[in-house]
């Protein structure tokens, strides 16, 4: 006999955890959450520093790759994605950023009715428990803890001094009325531990809510339909094929890569393309997997023997080991680092309405996402383009549901993106050449010989890759290429909704974890309103 629940949520990432947690608050509503990874509640996930173990490896990580990128000299890019409850919020750098107000107003202009900044701000506030900021822009009673850094690193003041020397403004709160400026990031942490979407919305209730069932190591392979309506999910667990049924809705929350993949495996997508893979079309929806957007990112890196930085060296490792006791006692010190401790949002031209680049200033040298280890200690500075014009896609490699999807971000596919990145490079270099930061540099790892604009273009094509913010592949709207409507319901199919970053019409100007949690919060409200109306 197949188990039946009101809602079956596929994917325990930021959106899935938020919507499952909120829907299961009603004891009369039953929710099943399927997650392909594990529970993600051990010390590796909880200790912020351990992201350096997860991002480069297959630990709690799908470890995806892209197809060769023509804009990057044919290189294959790397796409880490969280695998486990919390999804990418269990392996990310924990930076709490919502994006610019303009982004959400732009969504509304594009046809995403009900998603303007005024519409979404209440959900950001509802999700947030901010220990430092209050007022019109912040919440202090939500499940998602947001805190200032607890690393106590003196380099913070050096970074701010460099920002002043380079004549950039200082910003205390990137999620308030204004965004432009440099400063210190707030993080999704609590008492120095990572606070993933699972810790906020799911872990506390797995044993206390009988109406919430969480299945881990359960990878969805197909959505089940009856008469044009989604009625359940087929999944694999312990090498067995299983099914679970949904009375009200199947909610897909598998992320910008795997949500479109699951739809296509289930026959929803471009009919001709599906038939090439031997998949019988259930519903022709050509926008599935299209409109992939991601932030192209370049990293400056410098060797430094300053005691403020971490890395692979006897002194660096010794310094870290000596602070384990402090971390256990106080939840403070270098083990609470998210590495990208400082940064901000800058305009490469004064005439721009909104910042067009974002910086992440890191406390270690980073080469190829940490997959290439370098001896010594040092620091890095990422610069990413916030609203690239390039559009990519996600497709099927085969009809095998366990095969990874074909991921094509089309990085630097548009000439304008390359030129905007050149401007971002120069803007970031101004900061790196400020006296306060120059004093820390012993060796420039990647850009010592870069002088002309052509040199910059060459190093960008040689080194740009993702900064982990893919969105848009099941975008909301009402045009023929839209996949979901503004209530996140899949066009043309009953009982099927998508609740993750794939529904974003355009990439927001910032990190995508907080906006994806907001989408989960808003989706739960919309679902509850529909239930009441019926």
Automatic annotation (TrEMBL):
<dbReference type="InterPro" id="IPR000172">
    <property type="entry name" value="GMC_OxRdtase_N"/>
</dbReference>
<feature type="domain" description="Glucose-methanol-choline oxidoreductase N-terminal">
    <location>
        <begin position="255"/>
        <end position="269"/>
    </location>
</feature>
<dbReference type="GO" id="GO:0050660">
    <property type="term" value="F:flavin adenine dinucleotide binding"/>
</dbReference>
<dbReference type="GO" id="GO:0016614">
    <property type="term" value="F:oxidoreductase activity, acting on CH-OH group of donors"/>
</dbReference>
<dbReference type="Pfam" id="PF00732">
    <property type="entry name" value="GMC_oxred_N"/>
</dbReference>
<protein>
    <submittedName>
        <fullName>Glucose-methanol-choline oxidoreductase</fullName>
    </submittedName>
</protein>
<keyword id="KW-0274">FAD</keyword>
<dbReference type="Pfam" id="PF05199">
    <property type="entry name" value="GMC_oxred_C"/>
</dbReference>
<feature type="binding site">
    <location>
        <begin position="92"/>
        <end position="95"/>
    </location>
    <ligand>
        <name>FAD</name>
    </ligand>
</feature>
<comment type="similarity">
    <text>Belongs to the GMC oxidoreductase family.</text>
</comment>
<dbReference type="InterPro" id="IPR012132">
    <property type="entry name" value="GMC_OxRdtase"/>
</dbReference>
<feature type="domain" description="Glucose-methanol-choline oxidoreductase N-terminal">
    <location>
        <begin position="82"/>
        <end position="105"/>
    </location>
</feature>
<dbReference type="InterPro" id="IPR007867">
    <property type="entry name" value="GMC_OxRtase_C"/>
</dbReference>
<keyword id="KW-0285">Flavoprotein</keyword>
<dbReference type="InterPro" id="IPR036188">
    <property type="entry name" value="FAD/NAD-bd_sf"/>
</dbReference>
